[in-house]
Amino acid sequence: MTIVEFADFEAGANALPPGNVRQSLLALIQRSDRQFESVQLAVEGWFNDAMDRVNGWYKRRTQLWTVILALVLVLLANANTIEIVRKLGRDPVLRNAVVEEAKVRAQKPRPTISVEYADQDDPTNPTITHNEGNELSQNEMDLLGQILGWHDNVFHDKNGYSWSKQIWLERFIGWLLTILAISLGAPFWFDILNKIINIRFAGKAPEEPKK
Q: What DSSP designation does 59 have?
């Protein structure tokens, strides 16, 4: 077992290339009164604070790009939540087909992506694997085609007016609701779907006691 002394830590910090990390470590060493336990706690606190800031930056960045991508996808697919609810409400055949497909989807595993680095010397070329929960079935794509998309009458209301303020305000609100739903992420909605399906079937069957 190798015992690290204060001098070893100081020598390692001095051997680092010039930069912010080296300056920060040397500043922590100078304030530690040459006590290894003190500098160890200071470095741990500095590292944890830095990682908290990086984590916060990453979440904000990811959320921003999620909203941007959701906006693009919603406009391309005309994913209007209000119109989707209206279609499902007035077409029982379509509604039942969506419910049945939702049951099938709930039985599939949660969408996941695994990344493996087969060659540790080449971290820029990982192997990315998707599970079956990431793939859409043909039935799902057919149903989505019936409730999404820019159809011939999408620019007209029931009276034939294409630039009615009311209809475009409704579409804007519907798009906004869809963007909000997408920004929550697939795992969130997959968990909600599982809970709804379990409620419909009165929950999971109780486990039999072990003999």
A: H
> What count of Cα atoms within 13 Å lies in the side-chain half-sphere of residue 65?
5
Number of structural domains in the chain: 2
Q: Are the C-beta atoms of 115 and 128 separated by less than 8 Å?
A: yes
Distance CA 66, CA 194 (A): 23
Distances (CA, A) of 12 to 37, 69, 188: 16, 44, 45
Residue 132 belongs to what H/E stretch? none
Can you tell me whether residue 130 is helix, strand or coil?
A: strand
CA distance 8 to 17: 16
Angstrom CA distances, 95 to 3, 76, 154, stand at: 68, 23, 20
Question: Are 9 and 105 contained in the same domain?
Answer: no
Does one domain contain both 46 and 94?
no
What does the DSSP 8-state code read for residue 133? G
Q: Rounded to an integer, what distance in angstroms lies between the CA atom of residue 105 and that of residue 136?
A: 9
Same domain for 58 and 82, yes or no, is no
Same domain, 107 and 57: no
In a domain, residue 208? The reply is no
Structural domain that includes position 147: 78-199
Residue 10 to residue 22: CA distance in whole angstroms: 10
**Which pTM was predicted?**
0.56
Average pLDDT along the chain, 211 residues, taken 10 residues at a time: 66 77 78 74 83 88 87 88 87 87 77 75 74 73 83 56 72 89 76 68 52 48
